[in-house]
Amino acid sequence: MNPKKYRKEEPISYALGTTLMIELLKTWPKQVQTVYVHSDTDRNETYAMIESLCAEHGIALAQNNKAFNILSDKDNCFVIGEFRKFENPMNGDFPHVVLVNPSNAGNLGTIIRTAVGFGISNLAIITPAVDIFDPKVIRASMGSFFHLNFGLFSDFSEYKKAYPKRSMYPFMLKSSQNLSETPIEGKYSLIFGNEATGLSDEYLHIGQSVRIAHSGDIDSLNLPMAVGIALYEATKETFRK
């Protein structure tokens, strides 16, 4: 039980924090190898739940303060779950969020949390991109990562080939179509570029490009905010019911 600093090429990742640990144990217990507990962890009801779930699934629960020095830079992290990376394929019958070359771990985790919160749990990532299993992504998702279906694609054409006949909505500043005037219909895909450059002009010719209207005092919205607004508009009728 000697944890190593996270590396993208390794088959192991980590869930840092109590909330994430509980979600991991509830959703993917067979992938969990070890749960590390700091000696300062309160032995409260939450800890008892983690202890019970570990016992139920035969998962080692180890007190190891050194693990926290290696894996976490947060002072308030007292539980860490070590788990094997897994696949959870997307469902083509439901809405998708598509991110083209996302580069920021915190943003990706926030987007995952927002998407799952609006009931859209299918995420396509066009690479190169930030590592979806980076513990910073998982932590920023607040555990919603473990409810996510996801796929990685080398380019957008690969995604289109895998999921044809979908309503495509690229979000672009150059679009003349306002989101508030655009019905989001069918098996749809909401498509967003990365934090720095957005989508290239070729996406103007894919499906129906749309823009989110805002004041001229800013040049653009940040990516998590834009995705959140788009998700709200796309799902508001569902939640109104």
Describe this protein's structure.
The chain is of the alpha/beta class. The protein contains 7 helices and 9 strands. The strands form 2 sheets. A 5-stranded parallel β-sheet has the order 7-6-5-9-8. Strands 1-4-2-3 form a 4-stranded mixed β-sheet. Helix 5 (135-140) links the parallel strand 6 and strand 7. Helix 1 (18-27) packs parallel to helix 2 (45-57). The longest helix is centred in the last third of the chain and has 18 residues, at 223-240. The model has no long low-confidence stretch (mean pLDDT 93).
Question: Which consecutive residue ranges, at least 5 long each, have pLDDT under 50?
Answer: none
Strand order, largest beta sheet: 7-6-5-9-8
Largest sheet: 5 strands, parallel
* Average pLDDT level: 93
Instruction: Give the end-to-end Cα distance, rounded to a whole number of Å.
Output: 49 Å
Gyration radius, rounded = 20 Å
The percent of residues in helical segments reads 25-40%
Structural class: alpha/beta
Number of helices: 7
Element order: H for helix, E for strand: EHEHEHEEHEHEHEEH
User: In percent, how much strand structure appears in the residues?
Assistant: 15-25%
Overall number of strands: 9
Shape: elongated
